[in-house]
Amino acid sequence: MVLGTAIELITKLDRESKRYDELKRQKIIKELNFLKNQLNPHFLFNALNNIYSLASRKSENTTPSIMLLSNILRYVLYESGKDKVFIHQEMDFIKNYVNLEKLKFSDTNAPQIKCYFSFANENYTVEPLLFITLIENAFKHGISYVTPSFILISFKEDNEEIFLSVINSVGKKDDQNINTNKEGIGIENLKKRLELLYPGKHSFKQIYENSTFKAFLKIKK
């Protein structure tokens, strides 16, 4: 009788433990979906603004920009809802975004933009839209139409970790106001997603010095 009661108690505890784990998993999924849904409209609004600016100037880059936006939209609409995507898909998305941003500039005011991508396994999977916030911020704060400016993006995936560094100049206007302790909603959301997805397996650092802003993100496999 005692043995039967003990088995029943263990079974009940096991059921409750599984139920708790499932509720916790569902809560995390809801939080992640909420954070991604906040990101998508913000990102698309900026992309549409870029194309509107080109069209209003009757720029020859309007058509290429629409093609790039089409690729971006396809990714956001059909891939970003998935739990995981291939890392090469996420990087193609970032390349399309960078190329769309480049089309805003003429030869006379174009900033120096360099991108480096390295993969050990291009079919390794990551969460979609995880890195775009850092790229967006670089273009938001790193571009000047008056003084020389630059953005350096470096992404590396190897057998042990994923590493992204984004380094950009800071214009005079942002130079006076930028504060690494006062973060926008994009960075706040990124930090929350990292805590939910990679607890204890990531590091994120931002450094501002000498009119240069640096962001470093490392994720352990």
Automatic annotation (TrEMBL):
GO CC annotations on file: membrane
Pfam family, one: His_kinase
Example of a GO MF term: phosphorelay sensor kinase activity
Domain Signal transduction histidine kinase internal region: 31-107
Organism of this sequence: Cyclobacterium qasimii
Protein name (record): Signal transduction histidine kinase internal region domain-containing protein
Lineage, opening ranks: Bacteria, Pseudomonadati, Bacteroidota, Cytophagia, Cytophagales
